[in-house]
Design goal:
The chain has about 60 residues and is an alpha+beta fold. It has 3 helices and 3 strands.
């Protein structure tokens, strides 16, 4: 699963590129060179959320 890194400025200017990249893997969004957010596809999010659910609730 590839990881794409975009500055917050690039993310704002190229949101469609970020969405396409999120279908292939995680997209790290940085602010002043430090990761601040991660964009995931809904499938990746659901898989992650399901794997950390407590007591079987999602």
């Amino acid at each position: 699963m590839p990881i794409t890194t975009l500055s917050s400025r690039d993310f704002i200017q190229n949101a469609s590129r970020a969405r396409v990249a999120a279908n292939e893997g995680s997209v790290f969004i940085t602010d002043h060179g430090k990761p601040t957010h991660v964009l995931l596809s809904i499938e990746d999010y659901r898989r992650l959320a399901g794997s950390i659910a407590v007591g079987g609730s999602k």
